[in-house]
Design brief:
The protein is an alpha+beta fold and about 425 residues long. The protein folds into 2 domains: about 15-170 and about 225-315, 2-Layer Sandwich (BirA Bifunctional Protein, domain 2), CATH 3.30.930; about 330-415, Anticodon-binding domain (Rossmann fold). Helix content is about 40%, strand content about 20%. An 8-stranded mixed β-sheet has the order 1-5-6-11-10-9-7-8, with helices on both faces. Strands 13-12-14-15-16 form a 5-stranded mixed β-sheet, with helices on both faces. It has a 3-stranded antiparallel β-sheet with strand order 2-4-3. Strand 3 and strand 4 form a beta hairpin. It is elongated. The two termini are about 50 Å apart.
Length: about 425
Amino acid sequence: MYKAPRGTSDILPEEQGYWRYIEDKAVALCRLYGYQRLDTPAFEDVRLFARSIGEGTDIVAKEMYTFKDRSGNTLALRPEGTAPVCRVYVEYGLDNLPQPVKLYYLATIFRYERPQAGRYRQHYQFGFEAIGDADPALDAEVIDMAWQFFLSLGLNQLYLQINSIGCKICRPPYLESLKHYYSAHVADICPDCKARIVRSPLRLLDCKKPSCHDVAEAAPKGTDYLCQGCQTHFEAVQRYLRILELPFEINHRLVRGLDYYTRTVFEIQPPGEGAQSALGGGGRYDNLIEELGGKPTSAIGFAAGMERIVLNLKGQEIPVPSLPRPEIFIAYLGAEAKLEAVKLASALRQDGIAVTMAVGDRSLKAQLRQANSLGSNYVAIIGEEEVKRQAVTLRHMISGEQQVVSPLTLRKLLKKVTRG
């Protein structure tokens, strides 16, 4: 018996309401903030991700799905959303547009990692990027936009954490201090962190294993090493966040998992979950566009996993709107009635009215049970008598009231009901 591959999930019809709800809120939010939709391929040149994410990251080293095509090109399924957006920015010369360029996406992401609640090998992500400006007010706007997104979904008791991880000028001295500190605690950290001391020291602070927690908590703070430019930027971001009345706290261990981040990083977390289950996050990446072949360009972005949002909507028992049900169910009895039912269903659909028609030769009672299970407001019944009279018996499923009407009258009535 075939099953979905490990680390993937099927989104069944009864679950679709959550997904459409999140997507609708995301699209509405992006419209309010002036973002335009961008869709990129599900796979890219593997070098795009190795260059942008960083050779030393777990994503590049362990989690990317890579393959060679028939031309011998090495490609990778998209493991994150920002690098493809930046590739588009450079490839299509979007630096010639008014800046910042604001783009959003709803995309499938692929990572070979250990499956757990809200974390899948194939998952769906909502993200947005503001490319082309270094103003700290833009940092605050992006953080506010992310915060407002979760509030619009009805989620509450959220925690906003921010940090600054510096730039090319001030980060190297901090990394040396971090390496020196961790070299004295090699016996106390996990094997992955021992490798990170050399390969990716900033990621030492991001380790989720309990054995490394105390060591990371006592580690040197990056904010103590910020250059004047980064310090001024970070103070301005905090000032704007206070003006926006966002309840943030500074977390010196917050670094995010990708090498391209600079200066501001942030995460929004649900109650009682911790960083392992952050709802979403992002930060600045002021060097990435240049590393991909473009001009020096400042940028900031955000991303959130859809599955994790669904889990939190369910956990907080937030009701979501039901998906539209077929307005009318057409039941019939007999071959002649079936022909009239097919004709009526076609006419109603041309009117823009959602219709489900019975199939097979089930009893009227069975057909009405099906109409009730589908949640249809009306049932049109066509039997021998209705065929003779060229009429339809219309039943309102909630009140149980019935009336005999012509097909034309039925169409007019349903148009009036469905369109107000």
